[in-house]
């Protein structure tokens, strides 16, 4: 069965959709995107994702030709046509054709839907290992299509026996390439970076849950040294909600599953959907 | 008249050539390229450009499906079919389709030809203004398709009344987004950065000319402070050979045209072609 997407200003079969070789996205890597999870026919937290998508576009001087309602309707139509039981939607704004190879003249929207594994009902009991790497994403508050370093580091990451990468810069923890990082301090305060990284929608939902349920939390600069005293650590993303982290470089973090704060927050997140 | 390019493993009309929306180049900005000038039917310094292209590909773990000879034949065929009097050739390696959105599995070649203005016979007498900006390109010895910062800074650059941007980092001059930077010191030594930037083919040719004609030169860390004492400054690229720089931020550099070292080197560069 064919999968439909939105590209070149129309709904079409994904195999036929291409980005022109003269596009700024192809020639200069100039684009932004956002990604959201779809449960059946329900796009989750779509307003939060659209907020960030429009913020990214504005900061990158990319005028989105569609309104929020237009995009919601395109998403709805794709969901209807593709009939996937569980999926992800990727919305991209490409820089568009630029005769001089530099000037943004015709930004355009691409929307792609692809099947996605459903997150488990409760937090996974197995944790992942992160390898830390010194790197600062450029224009970090924008979800650009720049994953050059993340893709390039994949073989290095596997050499470390790690499952994901944790970026840090000048001694401060930033984020993973596709997720935010949280740790629980010895004083039972949940902390996460507050700047120079992308603010995830799941991160935002978790902070709201903390506020609502009186879970002590701080958004602030998180020192890389604090990892050595973490009682818990996890990463968060729209795709996976929460993934427990059980090792960062050589440091082991293994909370008791039953008492884990992540377990509690995961269940509250699930209810939010 | 239609312009032909090479994409999707065939020579085809450029309007029909597209990069799949699922390609790593589109979704993750993962690609490399090189660009060379073509005088009539003669691709200039193609071996130097292919050397760098294959170096970029290797460093980025992108296996080029074609051999050097294959690529030369594609370039030759495009030049023959497109019949442009003066042009530029862009060769791109796109990351290719990655079902997991991350793993490089099917890198592929794109070759595009476009008309280009012929450089003037002698060095232009008018110089440009550069605005300095603190920025370090990621994976700087590779010609990646990442020009996110360069494109994003265009409006800022125009606000400064500048024609191009000069990147520097921790007090050291790096490069312009699409060219290398040279300055002539008070002691008549031509200096240019030696690391953390892309080594241009024109830069290489100029250094060879300096060695051959006993023009004193150094490739080393160039301090941003040295700009204040520059007797001459210019930028170099395959497209333009040399462009004189007459202002950097508020500092004016105006050599006597007749005695200018850039004039002499420009003529020697022209002869090399």
What fold name stands as the CATH topology of the largest domain in chain A? D-amino Acid Aminotransferase, Chain A, domain 2
Q: Total strand count of chain A, please?
A: 16
Quick one: CATH superfamily of the largest domain in chain A?
Answer: D-amino Acid Aminotransferase, subunit A, domain 2
* Sheet of most strands of chain A: 9 strands, mixed
Q: Tell me the distance between the termini of chain A.
A: 29 Å
Entry keywords:
homodimer, 273 residues, alpha+beta, D-amino Acid Aminotransferase, Chain A, domain 1, nine-stranded mixed beta sheet, four-stranded antiparallel beta sheet, 7 helices, 16 strands
What does this structure look like?
2 copies of one chain form a homodimer. Helix content of chain A is 25%, strand content 30%. Chain A is α+β, with helices and mostly antiparallel strands and 273 residues long. In chain A, the strands form 3 sheets. In chain A, strands 8, 9, 10, 11, 12, 13, 14, 15 and 16 form a 9-stranded mixed beta sheet that branches. The first copy, chain A, is globular. At the A-B interface, strand 3, helix 1, strand 6 and helix 4 of A face strand 3, helix 1, strand 6 and helix 4 of B. Strand 3 of chain A pairs antiparallel with strand 3 of chain B, so a sheet runs across the interface.
């Amino acid at each position: 069965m064919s999968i439909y997407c939105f590209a070149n200003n129309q709904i079409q079969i994904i195999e036929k959709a291409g980005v022109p070789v003269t596009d700024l996205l192809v020639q200069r890597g100039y684009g932004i995107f956002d990604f959201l999870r779809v449960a059946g026919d329900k796009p989750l937290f779509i307003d939060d994702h659209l907020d960030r998508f429009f913020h990214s576009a504005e900061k990158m001087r990319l005028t989105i030709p569609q309104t929020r309602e237009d995009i919601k309707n395109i998403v709805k139509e794709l969901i209807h046509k593709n009939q996937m039981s569980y999926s992800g939607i990727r919305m991209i704004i490409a820089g568009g054709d630029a005769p001089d190879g530099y000037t943004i003249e015709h930004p355009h929207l691409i929307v792609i839907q692809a099947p996605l594994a459903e997150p488990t009902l409760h937090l996974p009991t197995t944790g992942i290992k992160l390898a830390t790497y010194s790197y600062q994403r450029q224009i970090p508050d924008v979800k650009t299509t720049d994953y050059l370093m993340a893709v390039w580091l994949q073989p290095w990451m596997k050499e470390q026996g790690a499952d994901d990468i944790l970026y840090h810069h000048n001694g401060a923890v930033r984020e993973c390439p596709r997720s935010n990082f949280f740790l629980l301090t010895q004083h039972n305060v949940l902390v996460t970076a507050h700047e120079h990284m992308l603010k995830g929608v799941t991160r935002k939902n978790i902070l709201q849950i903390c506020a609502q349920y009186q879970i002590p939390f701080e958004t602030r600069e998180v020192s890389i040294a604090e990892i050595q005293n973490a009682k818990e650590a996890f990463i968060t993303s729209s795709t996976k909600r929460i993934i427990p982290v059980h090792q960062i470089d050589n440091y082991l973090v293994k909370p008791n599953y039953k008492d884990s704060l992540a377990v509690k927050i995961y269940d509250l997140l699930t209810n939010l959907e």
